[in-house]
């Protein structure tokens, strides 16, 4: 994509002179339609610098003179199309030729009218497909979408759905039947030039054919991912091959999709099916308008597959890897890779929870993973776009919806569950994380109004108090109203029962802690942006919320709970005073030891668990948790053969039965600790600090972060009675050695040896 050729205003002005064109004939809006193909022939006297500016209702793939335009797949991406529809621009100078030219555009259903969300809603943004484009050469319009275009529904893509799959008939690749398009009066006011990054075809994995115990033919690609299968085979015209995609095999070693079956909420199910009807001879194909979450594919065909080749192709946004880690434990190395792969699988234009069942931009998932995401990959453009969707989804009263872009019908139950603490607080925490990693005040400025409104909403909630908490002198800052998901997916806790309890009695421990967290961050953000009065206001709110929390959720600063999260959260957020934090960390350590060095935390506090233990003198316990192989633990999944992070700690149970998503990045937040804790790379508020927390149980560790400040490296190993530490700094930094000594260092390489 090239954005230098034409100024933004000129491009949008030219595009507004084009017309929305609908390629379809009258049809039943509730029946899947073939992908539409549109074409336009045009003549130019000479080939020169040219830009194609294009968007659509649905998804588009453009071809100019037989060559694909750009490498953006699933364009124009997702979003709340009614408020913001992104427009891409491509430099097509090398594709144009003097004389006759032909532009063809194929439109698929995509997020616009295909299945979205766990309910599989269709026609969410509209029932139509439509194209809008303009081609500029030397700043002059040489082609635009208008009534002169032709269209056809006789092309090879017979059905397509982003979730459900695609049907392709290779015998229909030569289109002979065309009809005029229809000009439609759709809005141009929601058009926005895309400043983000494209969704791309990425890594490729060759499939291995195997026979399962029940006699089915199944492909194993070796890596769970989001993407599709590409096939290469020789067949006779009319022969058919069907591929069903899934994440795992069941307890008997057979293909299954049960773990992401949406049940009655989506009666169409999520088949993740490709159906390909062959032409005579060699067939090479992959879908254009669908992606799946999968490692395995069940094959149904009568074609001889002896020489066939099947390749899984990963599809995700442009995310250059920036974080690297390796150590002396191969299971931990695999855990790090699993975190990377779950991030890749769920950063397809916006961050989502899983690539199968929901594909929803859950705010809570992004909030807990963001500090790790900025270490693993350059994800600023993806998270920035998603925060824009959060702003669009925010209600007038400040409520931040749990999912952005919204992809549900807004039922009474759904509305009751909105505005959960820890989920809505993503609107404050994620911009803060991006600011710390990238040093961009712009991200704070863009989202300040959303943050402010969220704090207003939370403050109004706090002013209502349940009878049981009326004795709290700071009750106007205690959040015991509203629904909250809480920890979510804690071992030994039934999620549905926890939700009912939260609706009946509130969740003041979680909600008030996050009120404090967001208010305290807002005080810092306001000060950075020069809003001194706001900074003072939010600092006061934070102090009162802390007092409210301490009164209701502690006994004079002492925590009384058998759940680890109740200790992790107040220590990590700074809700305790003086020696109270150390005492809470000590109690947490005792709880972990008493639980056989197993964690019992859920989504919200797991990312901070090892930090809290290690930062308060319990590094040995942190490592025992990290290296625990029995469920619940991070390495349990690795030992079970996982290549991504699971939604639950026991996604594949001891007996081999499977449940829930097996590609869910939230618990992969532990990989952030491998970089910032194990190897001690800490960059925040413009300051770099190296403070590793080594342990012999890991053998050695090396981390590298290609940060916005430059390459940062930290590596340690043991040699007899010495710890050897080597660091490389792009800027001056403070280096804290395990013996407590502090060194103020200049940029460059530094070597240390510590006697043990």
TrEMBL record:
Coiled-coil stretches are none
The residue ranges of the Alpha-L-rhamnosidase concanavalin-like domain are 211-315
Task: State a single Pfam family of this protein.
Answer: Bac_rhamnosid
Q: Which InterPro entries match?
A: 6-hairpin_glycosidase_sf, 6hp_glycosidase-like_sf, Alpha_rhamnosid, Bac_rhamnosid6H, Bac_rhamnosid_C, Bac_rhamnosid_N, Rhamnosid_concanavalin
What EC number(s) does its UniProt record assign?
3.2.1.40
Chain segments carrying region Disordered? 146-169
The UniProt transmembrane annotation reads none
Establish whether keyword Cytoplasm is in the entry: no
> In the record, what terms sit under GO molecular function?
alpha-L-rhamnosidase activity
According to its UniProt entry, the protein's GO biological process terms are: carbohydrate metabolic process
- Where is each Alpha-L-rhamnosidase six-hairpin glycosidase domain found? 320-677
Give residue ranges for domain Alpha-L-rhamnosidase C-terminal.
688-747
- Report if keyword Nucleotidyltransferase is assigned: no
Gene3D superfamilies documented for this protein: 1.50.10.10, Galactose-binding domain-like (2.60.120.260), Maltose phosphorylase, domain 3 (2.60.420.10)
Q: Which UniProt keywords apply?
A: Hydrolase
| Annotated Bacterial alpha-L-rhamnosidase N-terminal domain residues | 47-182
**What chemistry does it catalyse, as a reaction equation?**
Hydrolysis of terminal non-reducing alpha-L-rhamnose residues in alpha-L-rhamnosides
Q: What class of enzyme is it?
A: hydrolase
Tell me the protein's name. Answer: alpha-L-rhamnosidase
The scientific name of the source species is: uncultured bacterium Contig248
What taxonomic lineage is listed for the species of origin? Bacteria, environmental samples
